[in-house]
Structure prediction request, 204 residues.
Amino acid sequence: MKLYGASPSPFFRKARVVLEEKGIPYETENLVPVPKTPELLALHPMGKIPVLRDGETVVPDSSVICAYLEKKYPLPALYPDDPPDLAKALFLEEYADTRMAETLGAIFFERFVKIHVLRQATDEARVQELLVSAVPAVLDYLESQIPSDRDTVLPRFSIADAALGAHLGNLSFAGLEIDRQRWPRTARYYQALLARSSFKTAMA
Ligand SMILES: N[C@@H](CCC(=O)N[C@@H](CS)C(=O)NCC(=O)O)C(=O)O
Prediction:
């Protein structure tokens, strides 16, 4: 089994965390989404990463990859059986992949992609604008969803934690930390995720 992508991508990290948590043997191959080479488009019709190859089966999209892995390797289960818990986990995955990708991803773009990939200067005014409104709104929402007494949003580690942690990782790649005074649950939760061996591997 091979996962194509690059570790600065939160979607690649999410899929990698799931592979690690399930203990599935896999290898990675570095693949970036620009330019849209014929090889990339043959793997993913929209030219995005990540993509999983399992024998003859090619699986694009992190959410599809994670659902595929759950079906093929059911244990440990990362999708709750309880319908309300399942709904919560799936919505938090969706929230991470959309709202968090837009906001934390915009900071990551300014502070990481522009410097290391595009060789351009960071627009710090844009970063500050995001840090004043859009990012606090995301962290306020997470603070309302993360319990005070455990390190997972649901009773067991789930796809929600893989997705939230993967996208919070954009802050680390942008050289930012979560303010412990303002968002104590989220800061503690993220530190606990980073301590898991799955995240240590995916964030490297
Ligand atoms: N819904 C997709 C999103 C993947 C995605 O947007 N990946 C980014 C890298 S972090 C990408 O490939 N961007 C290039 C593009 O959109 O053309 C998933 O979950 O895999």
Residues 75 and 169 are 25 Å apart (CA to CA). Strands lie at 2-5, 27-30, 51-54, 57-60. The mean pLDDT is 97.
